[in-house]
Specification:
The chain has 333 residues and is α+β, with helices and mostly antiparallel strands. The protein contains eleven helices and 13 strands.
């Protein structure tokens, strides 16, 4: 939609140079802000117009939807603190909730690196399979704009289960001035219009639920706090067995967290492919770095985080699954 708006605003002269049509200065500024993820600032520009054309009105509605989705994502992150805490150690906290076939997961962790480096571990998604043994195949399927990307990932599961796969779109939003953070809204994508790798045929597709998102915010130490909330239907109609849940929470999740810590240390000391990718995409990473450093980190963690941590005592075995029976789904699971 933003591309169509820009085409509406621009015209080319005889030598191919592009000019903005007269009287569209406000719209052009709003478009530039929106392309940088600053939906609230873009809305403020459009709200200053005494009257809106159909194009401006449609653009304003899109921005309002994005702002609402961002707030809903942040509300979901806050509300997920009330879910069952199944892990809290080594700077990693994991919360869990199940509703119907949807499994909701909240991962919160702190990393000793700046935002651009941590963001690159997500944005350069195709590199994840090089260091994460639980994602045998990852890919960036499309990048329609600076802050929009389509991802594909396969997740390893032990026999007798088939590996799972998930395809999602990420839209980055800059809420630095309003909320002191950057947010990526995650949404499902249809496989029909995408070119998936051949290995996808051997995997079972998972469904991503609404409200999934990633939040990045600065810390006083100079590091970055990351919170990821995902709502996933793993396509297991007979239920997810306790042994598999324990594998995810007690083995896979902490391993990935420690591997990320190790990778960040290696990149800070010796460089690597991620830093090369950052250097080749200054439009994204320099923008994020400038905006991220505009906000002051909180003086202390929020009271909600204090309460959640104080109320939690790590069990030797997650008590959530002690009474669950192992439900073998057979070779077609």
């Amino acid at each position: 939609y933003q591309r169509r708006v820009r085409e509406n605003l621009q015209t080319a002269d005889g030598e191919g140079r592009v000019h903005v049509r007269g009287g569209t200065g406000v719209m052009e500024r709003a478009l530039q802000l929106a392309q940088a993820g600053r939906v609230h600032a873009a809305l403020a520009e459009l709200d200053a117009l005494p009257e809106k054309s159909s194009t401006e009105h449609g653009f304003s509605q899109q921005l309002e939807r994005d702002a609402v989705l961002a707030q809903e994502g942040l509300n979901g992150i806050h509300e997920s603190l009330a879910w069952k805490c199944v892990r809290n150690e080594d700077q990693l906290r994991v919360h869990y909730r199940k509703q119907g076939s949807m499994h909701s997961l909240r991962f919160a962790a702190s990393y000793e690196c700046d935002c651009t480096l941590l963001l690159s571990l997500v944005r350069e998604f195709d590199l994840m399979s090089d260091w994460n043994k639980y994602t045998p195949h990852t890919a960036v399927l499309d990048s329609p704009s600076l802050l929009e990307t389509a991802f594909y990932s396969e997740v390893w599961l032990p026999w007798p289960y088939h590996n799972r796969r998930i395809t999602m779109a990420a839209q980055g939003l800059d809420l630095i001035e309003e909320k002191g953070c950057l947010v990526a809204l995650l949404s499902p994508m249809s496989d029909e219009a995408l070119q998936l790798p051949p290995s996808a045929d051997k995997c079972v597709a998972c469904a991503l639920g609404a409200g999934s998102c990633l939040k990045l915010s600065p810390e006083e130490t100079g590091g970055t706090a990351a919170t990821l909330v995902m709502h996933i239907d793993p396509a297991m109609p007979h239920g997810v067995p306790s042994a598999l849940m324990n594998l995810v929470f007690r083995v896979m999740t902490p391993w990935v967290h420690r591997r990320m810590q190790q990778l960040i240390l290696e990149l800070n000391q010796h460089g690597g492919t991620y830093l090369e990718r950052i250097a080749r995409n200054p439009g994204l990473y320099q923008l994020v770095e400038r905006r991220f450093h505009r906000t002051k980190p909180p003086a202390a963690p929020s009271q909600d985080d204090h309460d959640a941590d104080a109320a939690y005592t790590p069990p030797s075995v997650p008590d959530l699954y002690l009474n669950h029976k192992y439900e073998s789904c057979g070779p077609e699971a």
